Amino acid sequence: MATPHRLLLTGFEPFGTRDTNPSQEVVSLLEKESFAGIELSTRILPVAYLPATEWIRTQMAHFDKVIMLGVAWVRPEICVERVAINLMDATRNDNNGFCPTDMPIYANAPTAYFSNAPIKQIAAAIRDSGYPCKISNSAGTYVCNAVYYAALHEIAIRQLPTQAVFIHLPSNDYLPVSSMAEAIKAVIQYIANRNVPFFKD
Ligand code: PCA
How far apart are CA 77 and CA 65, in angstroms? Predict the structure, then answer.
């Protein structure tokens, strides 16, 4: 049997005025499942720039595939993020009380990275499972973007084969959490059903 893909799936704790985060709930639903061909690890990240970026950075060498989830409350559909930018520009404190404006995540690092995962195929896998999904060209300037940037920067500077994608989930006013979980399951199954190399054709 082929070696299973080591897959890291992350979500975020609640932040701001909300006491839930759909990304955390989706991870809790999916961590109970098993997927043939996948060795699944999960983690809920703090909505805090420094610990979240530092943790994700240290994990990149240990996984083949990384799917990071967060919520974008105002977006009506699931968004597969194409790009991460080297910028922290918060309009509200993070959960550690940190509120950076116009600051780079890493000094002397590239302005942006594109995802090294096949975002179009991932979006298609979600749409084929019956859920609304589009490509987004901005993951914002809050903690989600920072974590995505940290992952892609680490992969780039260490020349790791790891492939990473960030997916923003909508508010559960637009889509029930159980449907979001089904959509992400479709992405995991897309990974599982492909022989090596999964992420790039
Ligand atoms: N969404 C925020 C941070 C955590 C989350 O779930 C964001 O889009 O940056």
Answer: 23
